[in-house]
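Worked problem 6 (solution included).
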Amino acid sequence: YDPRDIALGFHISAERIRGGDHEDVLSRFRQAFDWREDQWDHDAQLARIEVIAPSGSQRWLQVQRYEMEDFNPDRDPLAEDYSNPIVQLRAGMPFYYEEPVVSAVEFSSDGVKQIMVENPTDQPMLQKWVVTRGNWTLPDVSWEGPPNQRRPGVSKLTGRDDRNRKILLPPITALEGGATVDLDAMELMIRDAANTNLLGRMPVPGRFFEYCIPPKTQRQTLPVSVTNVPAGGARVELIQPRWWSEPIGGQ
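Solution. The predicted structure is:
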């Protein structure tokens, strides 16, 4: 994705801070935005803009500096105790994001169940599956239909009718400790709990996950199945990211 560039203006003053001076406040403000993550701090994160709409939706955008702002004030900011910097920021991940929605299904024995899926956003959803021990078969269906009337059907992109397409995973045992299927191209598509690549162990060579969930997909269910369920049961989670092109609206 192309990055998102934004410019934000701020009003900075120390007049309401007891014992504060403008130089100190301005320094602390500038430390809130950095050019990159601190390579010595293992817990470092980029600055995050939070947008809360009246509807209650809560979205974030991670940003970093990419260009130094000009310093050309009409008056001395230290004497006036006031600065109005315009900060040039860049979001390498250009979409505003919400907390992902998680659907889960549990099995006490071998069988087939339905799991809920929905994508109300205006962006394709790169879903993620997390499974425990067992022999899992997960859906990987093609989609068709207008917004909010999506359904499994013929893919306009490939021309294939994969509405019933399913993917059999390698047997997940106590050795693997579980597995994750991730359609995000920045991640291993299929990996075990230790982050070991499982693509080479696919039961059907060359058969991988292909289809994301389209934007504006209304709530519906897809089938998941498992065999060889252990004594403690089995569980599958469908983690559904929420990416938006705008900070509010777009549903």
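Discussion: The chain has a mean pLDDT of 93.
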